[in-house]
Amino acid sequence: MGCYGIGVERTVAAVIEQNHDKDGIIWPSSIAPFHVHLLPVKYEGEVKEFSMKLYEQLNASGIEILLDDRDERPGVKFKDADLIGIPIRITIGEKNLKQGIVEIKERRNKETRLIDSKEITTLLRKMVSEDLQKYR
């Protein structure tokens, strides 16, 4: 079967070839399957409640978000998140949440920051908006 011209498959392959590292894909926000990867360390109790609330807030504000609610070890979730390559990862752990903070990691530069949990929605809207403007 032949393919003439530039198809979706070739375009995606070219993007991946230009945007990856040893851990996996690094999607540009403009074509990423999701803008944010929400990763609760243990999906139960307070962490589950906060994760669902944040998921709903982000969805309502137009941010495309993937919630990893699997019952897996944190290391497996982190490795999968890097492999998938969604531009922004939010990690919600019980210990940080009790202090009122969540972890945010940008996939492209691997920068990790701790952010006040009350400011996360506003910050994510700004980050996603700025990142999308880069590719317009």
Keywords:
Rossmann fold; five-stranded mixed sheet; 5 helices; 7 strands
Structural features, described:
The protein is an alpha/beta fold. It has one domain (8-134): Anticodon-binding domain (Rossmann fold, 3-Layer(aba) Sandwich), CATH 3.40.50. It is built from 5 helices and 7 strands. It has helices at residues 8-18, 45-60, 74-84, 94-98, 120-134; strands at residues 20-21, 24-25, 36-40, 65-67, 88-92, 101-106, 112-116. It is globular and about 55 Å long. The N and C termini lie far apart (34 Å). The model has no long low-confidence stretch (mean pLDDT 91).
What does the secondary structure layout of this molecule look like, with pairings?
Elements: H1 8-18, E1 20-21, E2 24-25, E3 36-40, H2 45-60, E4 65-67, H3 74-84, E5 88-92, H4 94-98, E6 101-106, E7 112-116, H5 120-134
Parallel strand pairs: 3-4, 3-5
Antiparallel strand pairs: 1-2, 5-6, 6-7
